Amino acid sequence: MNRKELDPEKSPKAAFGQLLRRLRDECGWTQDELGERTGCSGTHISAVETGRRPPTRRFAASADRALGSGDRLQRQSQAVRQTALLEGFPEYVRHEGRAAEIRLYEVGVIPGLLQTPEYASTLGESTVKRGVTTPGQADERIALVAERQASLIRTPPPLVFVVLDESCLRRPIGDSGVMDGQLARLIEFAELPNTVLQVAPFDMGVRRPLSLPVTVLTMPDRSLMSYAESAQRGHLERESTFVLPMLTAYHQLQVEAVSQAASVAMIDQLRKGTRDD
Fold first, then answer.
1. Runs of H (alpha helix) within 100-134
2. Distance of alpha carbon 17 from alpha carbon 49, whole angstroms
3. 3-class DSSP state for residue 182?
4. Residue 147 reports pLDDT greater than 90
5. Which of 61, 76, 67, 72 is nearest to 37 (CA)?
6. Of 40, 115, 140, 276, which residue is least crowded by CB atoms under 10 Å?
7. 264 C-beta neighbours (distance < 10 Å), count
């Protein structure tokens, strides 16, 4: 019998389907046999395994009970239900949580790893008002910001290099109190022993080697991967032929950006402006 090859890196649905198939194979059951034990058809099992149908909470819990897999499928199904997130981003987050080094470049908005709860909430509220997300989806995004930040508090902690385009600092998000707290958070971040924070000022002009946000991860085995987003999805790249030029451009960006001391001074000056408003 021909079996469709499953790529767990393709999407959260594919990762769930691959896990479900592996657990079913370990039990020696056919799709019909698992269907009988979960109260559905073998056709439904096939559709979930191949990513054609998303798993519901009820299905994941039923499959865990039948397969004796604890809550593995239920936990895996959470990523599938994160509908407010770009396809590809949950996969990136899993790697980010294990990375030895994280290099971020962001334009226009403070990156999630550095956002205060108030800043993240203001962004979430704005997406709800525009009809882009539901309140539940906005809460999902905010909760993920907190989870990602918590994952950085580990031993040993990752090295985190951040270059912010000046637009991140000057774009007002929320009221002056939200911005004051966010700018204070950036200064605190720069003072940590495992971080470097720099600003890429507007006057860099054509010397700026990167024009779009990008993240480069160095994993514990020193392998590299990069992550970037389009309007439709996020893309995680592991092929060194494509990642190494991105890393080189990031190093060039760091050289052209102002120093951490000058960056903190710029942020502090902007913070004084928010307090004067």
1. 117-129
2. 4
3. helix
4. no
5. 67
6. 276
7. 19
Give the range among 31-35, 59-63, 137-141, 263-267 with minimum mean pLDDT. 137-141
3-class DSSP assignment, residue 179: helix
Q: Under DSSP, is residue 105 helix (H, G, I), strand (E, B) or coil?
A: strand
**Could you give the domains of the chain?**
12-77 (1.10.260.40), 89-114+154-276 (3.30.870.10)
Concatenate the DSSP letters of all residues of 224-261 into one string: EEEEEE-SSBEEEE--HHHHHHHHHHHHHHHHHSPPHH
What's residue 94's pLDDT? Answer: 86
Model confidence at 101, pLDDT cuts 50, 70, 90, reads very high
Q: pTM of the full predicted structure? A: 0.71
Long-range contacts of 168-173 (CB under 8 A, 24+ apart): 168/106, 168/107, 168/108, 168/109, 168/110, 169/199, 169/266, 169/267, 169/270, 170/270, 171/108, 171/109, 173/109, 173/110, 173/119, 173/122, 173/123
Q: Rounded to 5 degrees, what are φ and ψ at 126? A: -65, -35
Indicate the length of the chain as a whole number: 277
| Mean of all residue pLDDT scores within the chain | 90
d(CA 66, CA 36): 10
| Interval 143-150 mean pLDDT | 89
CA distances 176 to 123, 274, 277, Å, are 14, 5, 7
3-state secondary structure of 165: strand
Instruction: Report the C-alpha gap between 212 and 165 in whole angstroms.
Output: 10
Q: Are 247 and 216 in contact (CB under 8 A)?
A: yes
Tokens of 210: 């990167």
**Spatial separation of the C-alpha atoms in residues 87 and 105, rounded to whole Å:** 20
Confidence band of 274 (pLDDT split at 50, 70, 90)? low
